[in-house]
Q: What sequence folds into this?
């Protein structure tokens, strides 16, 4: 809980800083974020490689876990379709927003292109919120719905941004499942979003 | 995406090569980098006036959609978790 509160305060501090100072001119923010992300992934990889027993533990995992990306996609689309009934958007629009699976940059661009800026903004916010939900609630999700739940919630982000928090909440031995899951779901985003925007 | 994965593979290789030595501070570095990335994400949202002004109007709809989608995926993962656990027990693990 303390860890989650610290994370939220850093996020809020960032909002205040951005509101007061705007974007820096000298260094693009996206480049700094990307460099930090690469450093983060290097560290995560290091801690996985430093502990060779992690890979041995993966061999003991159930092969049924290969179906996890399918569960994520089917569950997300069903949940988004149901949730869209509470919004002014159609069921296919709700599913298109859900099919970003946390990959907010790509899905919001695709949706803005075919459905306009309003649904594009909803897609951006919704997928940022999904990533934040995963980052903040991973330990709770693991406790309530089993250790696969944080991976499913992370959607397309489980191979990079949410991987560190998932390995904390679900255990180091599920890191490989998380990376595999992130790859498959990430790959499905452009296809599913484009397809669902066609309705 | 592929650059990021490349950095992780390099990290795995470096970690594997130095597995016999004890390396300190990796866990702390991960924690600090997570803080930095969320700070930067917040900065990006805070400096985008359009995004900030749209937050109350569209944020509610976005929240409903992401909550529904996340809940759906989590329930499906829960079902798979239960199924794989049962499979393990049948496999003779005590």
A:
């Amino acid at each position: 809980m303390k860890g989650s509160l610290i994370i939220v305060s850093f996020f809020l501090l960032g909002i205040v800083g951005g509101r007061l100072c705007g974007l820096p001119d000298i260094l693009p923010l996206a480049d700094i974020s990307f460099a930090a992300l690469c450093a983060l992934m290097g560290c995560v990889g290091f801690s996985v490689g430093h502990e060779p027993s992690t890979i041995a533990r993966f061999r003991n995992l159930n092969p049924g876990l290969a179906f996890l990306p399918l569960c994520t996609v089917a569950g997300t689309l069903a949940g988004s379709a149901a949730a869209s009934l509470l919004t002014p958007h159609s069921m296919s629009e709700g599913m298109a927003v859900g099919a970003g699976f946390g990959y907010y940059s790509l899905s919001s661009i695709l949706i803005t292109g075919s459905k306009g800026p309003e649904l594009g903004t909803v897609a951006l916010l919704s997928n940022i919120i999904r990533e934040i939900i995963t980052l903040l609630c991973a330990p709770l999700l693991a406790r309530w719905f089993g250790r696969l739940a944080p991976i499913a919630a992370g959607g397309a982000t489980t191979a990079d941004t949410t991987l560190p928090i998932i390995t904390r909440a679900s255990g180091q031995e599920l890191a490989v499942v998380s990376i595999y899951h992130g790859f498959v779901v990430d790959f499905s985003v452009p296809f599913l979003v484009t397809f669902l925007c066609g309705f | 995406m592929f650059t990021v994965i490349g950095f992780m593979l390099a990290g795995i290789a470096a970690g594997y090569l130095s597995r016999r030595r004890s390396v300190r501070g990796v866990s702390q570095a991960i924690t600090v980098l997570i803080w930095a990335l969320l700070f930067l994400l917040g900065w990006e949202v805070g400096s985008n006036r359009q995004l900030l002004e749209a937050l109350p109007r569209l944020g509610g709809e976005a929240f409903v959609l992401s909550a529904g989608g996340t809940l759906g995926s989590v329930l499906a993962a829960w079902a798979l978790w239960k199924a794989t656990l049962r499979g393990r027990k049948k496999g003779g693990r005590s």
The longest helix of chain A spans residues 117-145. Chain A has ten helices and no strands. Residues 1-6+69-80+90-199 of chain A form one domain.
